[in-house]
Amino acid sequence: MKKILITGFDPFGGESINPAFEAVKLLPDTIAGAQVIKLEVPTVFGKGPQKTIDAIEEYKPDYVLCIGQAGGRSQLTPEFVGINYVQARIPDNEGNQPMNQPLVEGAPQAYFATIPVHAMVEKIKANGIPASVSYTAGTYVCNAMLYCVMHALYTKYPNVKGGFMHVPFATEQTVNQTAGTPGMNLKDIAKGIQAAVEAILENEEDIQIVGGETH
User: What confidence score (pLDDT) does residue 204 get?
Assistant: First the structure.
């Protein structure tokens, strides 16, 4: 049986929930015949990626899909690339706020996701959920997760494919936000994540860019 590790962050930035892991918790334990391993990770530079990498070592999944909140986005957005750079707009959950520095000294400037982001978008949309490919994961903890996990996959676990997807605020998070702030029902977010996983399993050989890194 194939295995896919799906991570979601804990709440941060003053929010009481994080739709990333709340939606992951709603996923079934198997999707398209693959075992789903669900993992909550801290919104902390270093610790979040390391907990994910430790889980890769422990569970030996075939795929890794990390989920994060992007408040203000109205769609599920699989990320195309993670960059070796951090510029934290707010402190993480342990008060760290690294600025203007690389995530991994001496490592490539960027890593491309090795999951089929375009196919994921099409599958999510076919299930009635808004989605689009994103070409910037930002410079906060989400990008750090994407970049550091991909660095581990490229350097230590070359047979594991991975990537990252942002999700919107949960509807209940928008109650006290500025009028018009996008939100999505958690069940719909979970439905979109499940569709993304199905696309990953259906398009195992569809890697966007051979080599997957830029220097």
Answer: 74
Which residues does the annotation mark as catalytic? 79, 142, 166
Euclidean distance between CA atoms 7 and 212, whole angstroms? 22
pLDDT in tens, 41-53: 999 999 999 999 9
For residue 56, the model assigns a pLDDT of 98
Look-up of token digits 């959950």: 93
Sorted by sequence, the CB contacts under 8 Å of residue 123 that are 6+ apart come out as: 195, 196, 198, 199, 202
Q: What whole-number distance in Å separates Cα of residue 132 and Cα of residue 49?
A: 24
Phi and psi (nearest 5°) for 82?
-115, 140
Whether the full predicted model's pTM is greater than 0.90, yes or no, is yes
Confidence tier at 213 by pLDDT (50, 70, 90): very low
Give me the amino acid identity at 132.
Answer: S
Q: How many residues does the chain have?
A: 215
H-helix segments, 110-206: 117-126, 141-155, 186-202
Distances (CA, A) of 173 to 40, 68, 99, 160: 19, 15, 28, 34
Looking at residue 210, what is its pLDDT?
42
How far is the C-alpha of 74 from the C-alpha of 153, rounded, in Å? 29
Q: Give DSSP secondary structure letters for 63-119.
A: EEEEEEE-TT--SBEEBSEEES-EE-SS--TTS---EEE-SSTTS-SEEE--S-HHH
